[in-house]
Write a structure and sequence with these properties.
The chain has a two-stranded antiparallel sheet with strand order 1-2. By secondary structure, it is mainly α. It is 59% helix and 3% strand. The longest helix has 24 residues, at 79-102. Strand 1 (50-52) and strand 2 (60-62) form a beta hairpin. The chain has helices at residues 7-16, 24-31, 36-45, 66-77, 79-102, 121-124, 132-142, 147-154, 158-171, 177-183; strands at 50-52, 60-62.
Length: 184
């Protein structure tokens, strides 16, 4: 699913996955931009893996286990960015806490960063790599193609497509086709 999103959205999601809870101010500070509110609204409207944390208005998080998977991708493929992202997040927290103390308001927003210790093997172990053909089938599912259309496009028998779909759902431990697309 991530690969089908625009590059700007992918980068936003990967880099903000370091945060256990997302707010537009901390995302802006983390990414050194002022477009996080619009991006978070876009992700929420598109029903893209955001969950309301119930903590406070404007605070959300990536749905489990998707947030952990994003964080794992960030750590594996952009590890060099982690230190910088942590520094920016901590600088934002220090500035927020200082402002709150100066205003004699002790309700500074706590900042919770993901850490390697928070993403355990058991949480991400269910993700077995998909084969090239399974990725092709999943991509077509993401486009909304039916089994019949997938069979026609990939020159496969309908029973073969059904087997691929079942295998994809099983490998991703998904509930159905749509859930498989979200998890991938």
């Amino acid at each position: 699913m991530l690969a089908t999103l625009p590059c700007e959205t992918q980068q936003f999601m990967l880099r903000t996955s370091i945060l256990a809870q997302l707010t537009s101010p901390v995302c802006d500070a983390l990414l050194e931009q002022r477009t996080s509110r619009a991006m978070l609204q876009k992700l929420e409207q598109a029903n893209l893996v955001l969950a309301d944390t119930g903590a406070a208005a404007g605070v959300c998080s990536y749905q489990a286990p998707f947030g952990d998977l994003l964080w794992q991708l960030l750590a594996q493929h952009h590890g060099e960015d982690l230190k910088l992202l942590r520094e920016r997040a901590n600088a934002w927290q220090a500035a927020t806490a200082s402002t709150a103390r100066n205003a004699q308001n002790n309700k500074a927003t706590p900042l919770v960063l993901r850490d390697a210790a928070t993403v355990t093997e058991t949480e991400v172990a269910f993700v077995e790599p998909l084969s090239g053909r399974e990725l092709e089938v999943l991509s077509l599912i993401a486009e909304g193609a039916s089994n019949k259309i997938i069979a026609e496009r990939l020159y496969l028998a309908m029973s073969t497509v059904k087997n691929y779909v079942s295998t994809i759902i099983a490998k991703l431990d998904a509930h159905n086709r749509t859930h498989a697309v979200v998890l991938a």
